[in-house]
Structure formats: structure tokens, C-alpha cells
Write a structure and sequence with these properties.
Elements (H helix, E strand, L loop, with lengths): L31 E5 L23 H11 L3 E5 L9 H9 L4 E5 L7 H10 L1 E7 L10 H11 L5 E5 L5 H9 L5 E3 L14 H13 L2 E3 L3 H4 L18 H10 L4 E2 L16 H11 L3 H16 L6
Parallel strand pairs: 1-2, 2-3, 3-4, 4-5, 5-6, 6-7, 7-8
The structure holds (1E,3Z)-4-hydroxybuta-1,3-diene-1,2,4-tricarboxylic acid.
Length: 308
């Protein structure tokens, strides 16, 4: 694919929702959106030649607009694969947020200490390892181990993106990494399987045994039943609720939440971000659970020592 600044978006690509509804659920003050991205804008930050998709633009101004609309206080901006290992759009967004954003980078194994220190000074607190085959060509374990060893002294963690079916094959390697682990999107369970079934049990055991953090995010990506009918009901993505609820109940001190805006690679439907907020009280059913999920946990991981 070309890195030309005006490359057209991937056919079938759905643009992010321009007029999200106002959530009925009021996010607690200090809420952190711990999983979102920026796409370009490509005229300023061209996409990587090796990318698997070309998105629409979704830049920092629009991200900060959504943050304010939803009542979010802070963002953790995760490098999206369309930018490869060029972190400049993400770093620019983090730097522009006046202390209200942190970043997760994608780096190559030959990165040197001064580059890592520069990312750290900008607000980067981790690296992302992506094992989802439609998004990256390869993820050689030796390279990832080298990266993990380099970032460990900075106190960074590794954000993992994998599909549940791949966990058995990856688990030995992941356990050996010398850094805290944070898993995206509930480990991407197959929600047509029972929440008490063997696949999710294996994921829960992995989380338990390794003190893993879990993002209770992306119901829109995991759901088979989909969003609600447009009948005034704001009860969305019902089939994902038991999976999110189980993780929040079992690991209340190691769960995070994020919008995943601008929602890469959705072709079936694009979520209304207001509805994603209204999904939250269905998975975190007490004020205490919600405060941990939305405020205390992400503040401890990304802004340790800062009052909230
Ligand atoms: C997500 C999910 C996806 C894409 C990426 O970096 C990315 O391109 O993460 C996906 O396609 O499932 O977390 O944004």
C-alpha cells in the first residue's frame, strides 16, 4: 500500500460516528478512556506503507472533542497499526493534551535508550504487542522479548492484542515477559461460547495466574447480537455483558475501560460512543466497581501518585 498522503480509505470502511448521543450514564469525575487511537490526519502524519488498512482521519482535536462530550477526563492513546512504528501522530496528541493523556507505542527491537527516554518524557508508558494476524505480518518472539527487556527498566508495561483462540499457543511466551501485561478487549472471547466454558476459563486463569490487567472494552467488536434497535432502548451489546461482568467481578482492581475511538476496521456497524458509555453500568454494577474501572485503576497505572 502506498503511504501517499491522500490514499483512499479501505473499501467498506465505516467512518467514526460524527454525532454521538449524550450518554444517560454520567461517568464519574476523573474517568480515563484507556484505549483510543488517533488516525493521522494523514496529510500531516502519513500512514505506514506496511499498514493493512487505510482509515479515515481521526485526529487529536476530534479525540479531545469526544473526550469532553462524553465527560472523560483523560485518555490513553494506543498506537494504531496503520501508523506502524512511526509514533509521531500519537506522541503529538499526547504532548498536546497538557498532561491529560498517556501513550502506548509500537517500537522496533533496535530502538535505543535515548529514543525510549524521549517517548517516556512525552508521556508514553508502554508498548503494544499485536498478535492479530489480519493486522500485522509477524510478531517474532525474539524481537518482542528484546523490546520487553528494554522497556522494563522504565517501569513500562506491554499491551497485548490477541484472539482468545491463540492464547494457548502464546501463553508460555507471555508468562516469560519481565513486564506487567495489559490485555485488550477482554482477550477477544468468542461470545457465542458460554461465559463458563473452557475458552473463557482459560483466559481467566491466565489473568489470575499472571496478575494481568484487562480492558473491558470493545463490546461492539465482540458482539454478535449487535447494537440495540433504534427504539429508545439504550441496552447495547447484550451478549457481551456476562463476559465483561465476570472480569469486573473477579479482578476489580485490574480492569480498565476504553472507547476504542475511532474504531478501526468496523464494516458492519459503527457504534455510537454515547451508547458505549451506557453499556458500562451493565458490566460494572456498583459505584465501587465503576470507580475502580474508570478512575482508580487507570490512574494508578498511568498517573501513579496523582490525586483523583
Ligand atoms: C483496536 C482494534 C483493531 C485495530 C487496531 O491498531 C489497530 O489497527 O488495534 C482491530 O482491527 O481489531 O483495538 O483498535
Amino acid at each position: 500500500m502506498s503511504g501517499h498522503p491522500n490514499a483512499p480509505r479501505t473499501p467498506g470502511w465505516l467512518d467514526w460516528y460524527r454525532n454521538p448521543s449524550r450518554p444517560a450514564f454520567r461517568l464519574p469525575p476523573g474517568t480515563v478512556d484507556a484505549h483510543c487511537h488517533v488516525f493521522g490526519p494523514q496529510a500531516e502524519f502519513p500512514f505506514a506503507p506496511e499498514r493493512k488498512y487505510t482509515p479515515c482521519d481521526g485526529g487529536k482535536e476530534e479525540l479531545f472533542g469526544l473526550r469532553d462530550h462524553l465527560g472523560v477526563a483523560r485518555n490513553v492513546i494506543v498506537q494504531a497499526t496503520c501508523h506502524g512504528a512511526d509514533n509521531s501522530a500519537m506522541v503529538d496528541a499526547v504532548r498536546s493534551a497538557g498532561g491529560r493523556a498517556r501513550g502506548i507505542a509500537t517500537v522496533r527491537p533496535d530502538i535505543d535508550e535515548s529514543e525510549l527516554l524521549e517517548l517516556d518524557a512525552a508521556g508514553v508508558r508502554g508498548v503494544r504487542f499485536n498478535f492479530v494476524r489480519r493486522l500485522v505480518d509477524t510478531s517474532p518472539e525474539d524481537d518482542l522479548r528484546t523490546i520487553a527487556k528494554k522497556v522494563a527498566p522504565l517501569g513500562w508495561h506491554v499491551v497485548l492484542y490477541f484472539e482468545s483462540v491463540d492464547l494457548p499457543e502464546l501463553e508460555g511466551f507471555l508468562r516469560s515477559l519481565p513486564v506487567p501485561l495489559v490485555v485488550d478487549h477482554l482477550g477477544r472471547p468468542d461470545v457465542t461460547q458460554p461465559v463458563d466454558g473452557p475458552q473463557f476459563a482459560r483466559f481467566l486463569r491466565f489473568v489470575e495466574d499472571n496478575d494481568v490487567w484487562v480492558k473491558v472494552s470493545c463490546p461492539e467488536r465482540l458482539s454478535v447480537t449487535g447494537p440495540p434497535a433504534l427504539d429508545g432502548e439504550r441496552r447495547s451489546y447484550t451478549d457481551v455483558v456476562p463476559f465483561g461482568r465476570r472480569v469486573v467481578e473477579e479482578f476489580p482492581d485490574r480492569v480498565l475501560w476504553g472507547t476504542d475511538w475511532p474504531h478501526p476496521n468496523l464494516t458492519g456497524h459503527m457504534p455510537d460512543d454515547g451508547l458505549l458509555v451506557d453499556h458500562l453500568p451493565r458490566v460494572a454494577v456498583t459505584d465501587e466497581q465503576r470507580h475502580k474501572l474508570l478512575v482508580a485503576n487507570p490512574m494508578g497505572l498511568y498517573w501513579p501518585g496523582e490525586p483523583f
